[in-house]
Specification:
By secondary structure, this protein is of the alpha/beta class. It has a 7-stranded mixed beta sheet with strand order 1-9-8-7-2-5-6, sandwiched between helices. It has a 6-stranded parallel beta sheet with strand order 14-13-10-15-16-17, with helices on both faces. Strands 3-4 form a two-stranded antiparallel sheet. Helix 4 (85-93) runs antiparallel to helix 5 (97-111), helix 13 crosses helix 18 and helix 17 runs antiparallel to helix 18. The radius of gyration is 28 Å and the shape is elongated.
Length: 562
């Protein structure tokens, strides 16, 4: 896919981004990001996340949505390992320099614990860089990495062979602003006493790198070591800020220089043909993420006449209040006699469930990873802890409610288009309801508060946890909802929820179970929480990852109720 612009002159200097271009430090970077993102609330950055309608791309909007809810990176980003923290911060904070500065500082504090593991991003990187020096091209590094990290990684990579390769290095703490501010490039050129013109090339692996090059007035060269598809790269850039060249490997870089040498024979001290190393392979693309096989594109469902939704983590986000209340309640379990009523390890559905029970039993709190993931509801937590012990779960729900009363109030739509989907369902004649384990005092307050105007008028029926003797996963609440609507409990009633208890309740009620995968579980994990065994037979009829997929699914169903 290597290509370049006509009129690109031979370079006098090649300035490189560090991570993702010259070296691979993904392990440390993603470990630091996963530790840093749960701190967003304490850092005052949740409210400074970019509104989704202000995001540059649909992918950026989805990333903001995911981080806002779950305070961690989307699983696809973790699986592909293609984007940098700079790209992430620019995607989620936009032009808010102060927010990005706070985020970078918090990231650096976390990165300090993990950095040190560094390797060349591409095989033969040292040999290619050496060839560039022999051609008489000046070399520099311009990076958002702090000096303490770059200097150590430079000493470590390739057993220290890189230390004398570069004529200048400029780090984030050498300048006043992070990229895409151009100072990391202009400062490097000042050190080398070279002008900021087209003969100065900045080689980087991200949109932000190319934007930085454009603002500095130099030639941006996009290094596609992450193996992005051609169309994906083109979609990021306008004609004004497009890179001067796109290269898939350092071998492509040498080939490009050889082409330019024919046009400018005096450009280099040695010709590329004289110094080029043996060709090394380009980087391998990431393994594709396995999507759930309960996909809307392949299932065949009856068109719904009634759609019932779970509330928390499906229609709305109340995660902060929920986890605060859960944290507060666990220390009371011993006194209430609930600790002894927790499941034995052999009765847990999965090894992960058994470990959660053991941790809560020993420490009277959630495991930090569960807390950080923010993917499991209190109902699912109680199911994991107590199984079929309805009395224990009722006591736990009562204690939770007492503590939730101290924290509830803030409620946001889980996605910006939730209201539009609810209104769209009503326009096409589908009855809409809510089934929630939340007690009515909390639900009615949150229903009136969401979107600042409330959603009371959007639902034909609602059933809360204290409206029936038994809560989900028992189907009583679902039966009561359709009874109020004078409609039979059959597959033309869809129940949409984000938890295993929602799926179990729907299947036991004889309804269509739509698992809302807002937490973006991958297929291996879905197979673990829905094993389809004799003991745990209930599996969703379909999995949707967001409300756009759900809406498309509703519209695609052509066969109506019998």
């Amino acid at each position: 896919m290597a290509r370049f612009s006509d009129g690109l002159p031979a370079p006098s200097v090649l300035m490189f981004d560090w991570h993702g271009t010259l070296v691979d430090t993904h392990d440390a970077m993603f470990s630091a990001m996963e530790e840093m993102l749960p701190q967003l609330e304490d850092l005052g950055l949740v409210e400074r996340l970019l509104p989704e309608d202000k995001c540059r791309t649909a992918d950026d909007a989805r990333l903001v949505r995911y981080i806002r809810i779950f305070r961690r990176l989307h699983p696809r980003i973790l699986a592909e390992r293609r984007v940098s923290r700079t790209d992430i911060f620019n995607a989620i904070f936009g032009d808010d320099k102060e927010a990005k500065l706070i985020a970078h500082k918090a990231y650096n504090n976390c990165y300090r614990k993990y950095f040190g593991k560094v390797r060349p991003f591409q095989q033969g990187a040292y040999e290619y860089l050496t060839a560039l020096k022999e051609m008489g091209i000046r070399l520099a590094v311009s990076t958002n990495r702090n000096r303490e990290f770059l200097d150590k990684e430079l000493r470590m990579v390739d057993e220290g062979r890189w230390q004398n390769l570069f004529d200048a290095t400029v780090c984030a703490d050498d300048v006043t602003e992070y990229k895409p501010d151009p100072e990391v490039i202009t400062r490097a050129l000042e050190k080398l006493d070279l002008p900021a013109d087209a003969r100065a090339w900045y080689v980087g692996d991200s949109y932000v790198d190319m934007l930085t090059a454009n603002r500095a007035g130099v030639s941006g060269v996009f290094y596609n070591g992450a193996c992005w598809e051609s169309g994906r790269i083109d979609s990021w850039f306008s004609h004004r800020d497009a890179p001067a060249a796109i290269l898939d490997s350092f071998e492509d870089l040498i080939n490009l220089l050889a082409l330019l040498e024919r046009q400018e024979p005096e450009a280099f001290r040695s010709t590329p043909a004289e110094v080029r190393p043996r060709p090394y392979p380009r980087p391998e693309p990431p393994q594709p993420r396995i999507e759930p096989d309960w996909h809307p594109a392949v299932v065949s469902l009856i068109r719904p006449s009634v759609v019932l939704f779970d509330w928390h983590a499906t229609l709305v986000d109340t995660l902060d209040a929920m986890y605060h209340a859960v944290d507060d309640m666990f220390p009371e379990f011993e006194e209430l006699g609930l600790t002894d009523r927790m499941l034995a390890p052999e009765d847990s559905k999965t090894p992960e469930d058994a470990r959660l029970v053991a941790y809560v039993r020993e420490f009277a709190k959630l495991h930090p990873k569960v807390r950080a993931d923010r993917k499991i509801s209190r109902t699912d937590i109680f199911e994991v802890l107590f199984g079929e012990d309805q009395d224990a779960k009722q006591i736990a729900h009562k204690v939770f409610n007492r503590h939730y009363r101290e924290h509830y109030g803030t409620v946001k739509a889980f996605e910006p288009k939730v209201r539009a989907v609810l209104e769209g369902l009503r326009r096409i004649g589908i009855q809409v309801g809510v089934i929630t384990n939340r007690d009515r005092e909390f639900f009615e307050h949150e229903l009136a508060a969401v979107d600042d105007t409330g959603w009371t008028h959007l639902f034909d029926v609602d059933v809360c946890g204290d409206d029936t003797p038994l809560r989900k996963p028992h189907p009583d609440q679902l039966y009561l909802a359709v009874q109020k609507l004078d409609y039979p409990p059959d597959p033309s009633v869809w129940y949409v929820g984000d938890s295993t208890t929602d799926v179990i309740a729907a299947k036991r009620a004889g309804m269509t179970a739509v698992f809302f995968n807002g937490a973006q579980w991958d297929l291996p994990w879905l197979n673990r929480i829905f094993p389809g065994t004799h003991k745990h037979p209930d599996k969703p009829d379909v999995v949707v990852n967001d409300f756009s997929e759900f809406w498309a699914l509703v519209l695609a169903c052509e066969i109506g109720p019998p």
